Amino acid sequence: MIYSTILKKRLLFAASIAFLITSSCTKIEGVGLEAEQNLLAVNSSDTFAVSASTFLLDPLPSAGQGGLLVGAFENEYVGQTRASTYFRLAVPDLSTTFTNDVQFDSLTISFFYNGYSYGDTTQTMGISVHRLSQAIDPKELSIALEGDEFPVFASGETLYTDQEFAYAREPLGTTRFSPKPHSKKDTVSIKLDQNLGHTLFGMVLSKDSRLTVEDDFLDFFRGLAIISEPDAKAIVGFKDSIAFSLHYSYERQSDGRRITEELTINMGNSDYQYNRIETERSNSLLRAMTAVNSEIVSTSTDSRTFVQGLTGLVSRIRFPGIRETLGLGATAINKAQLIIETDQLEYGFYPPPDSLILFVANRYGTPTSLVKNASGASLLAVYQQGSTSGGIGRGKYVFDISNYLSALIKTQTYDDEESLLISLPTTTLLSRTNVLQVAQNDNKPAIKLNVLYIKTQ
């Protein structure tokens, strides 16, 4: 009896070693051990099929994301993306005391780079400043939606990328500039309408209630829209702090010198600042995509799928037949890796994203939760540079979805129409326009699922 027990333990150890040595095989037959009338079969597989498409989410919330985006760029795969920004001004501080000989000089607005850009910043671009004629009004998602139709990142009243508010077509001011997105010193300053400046400064001197009472101020001055010229080749980011300045001068009594100063009005509540995003896909691989036709299979897009922030593009993936192959509950997942490859140039104008996440989506494609690991933390796949030996290497992202796959094969009530969405991280999804183009491999998107598992038969 003792000899038999020792023999079984040694056989079990030998089977474990065989599993580790042969982990690259598709399937291992005949490696097993009888234990309590069950056969412990050790298997590994890297051949699970992945069904992939490009999916368009509903318009995304973009209020208060910490940056102003203006500009445009065009990509042969996803088409043209254009960004403009809208915001309120804050009620000005009128505590300054002015001398009798004070004179108004000019009105300007200045923007400060926040380090972000996407596209060709070697080209000049033009922007114009417009006064809003309609109040910025946040909205809520439709109350007709069921609970599982609300995206995980949207709740309450906010502003969305598809909202537009009317503004005066005649700009208050325009400028053309060479973007310097990484500069900590340079600003983009625009001289604004002189008549508006005179009006505002007169109201400052009289301490007009339209500049001191918030409701009166917002009724008088609803906000600003910053619009880019259509020939822009990049989207550039600015800090969500602006300087809307009334410049004035007066004679200093002590020495008779003319002194120039300014009264600066800041940006208002960030909940009322958002980035509007427009797309034009007629000349791209995604030309058939619309709000109604929101999913395009990879066979229609050159065997690729795509991801892009703010526009709502994600790659939707499913694993058809995996539950049937692995069985329900009788399999232990040793390791499951989801690998996404890209052939984007790392140092071009349109580099791949730094990282990706995975959403769990319901049958409608609505992201309802984040895929997490065993400890409850959200999965994050960081870009890994490809090897350049033998040619240009592909970059990749690797997710360990062992925990997700283990739960999938154990859940009796699993919805077969559930899917995963490959996306930019939530904060980036709602504030950046970066693109991921998934590479193609053998007329399929370069997305594969490798699974190592132990199955009790």
Automatic annotation (TrEMBL):
Top-rank taxon, per record: Bacteria
Matching InterPro entries: DUF4270
Entry protein name: DUF4270 domain-containing protein
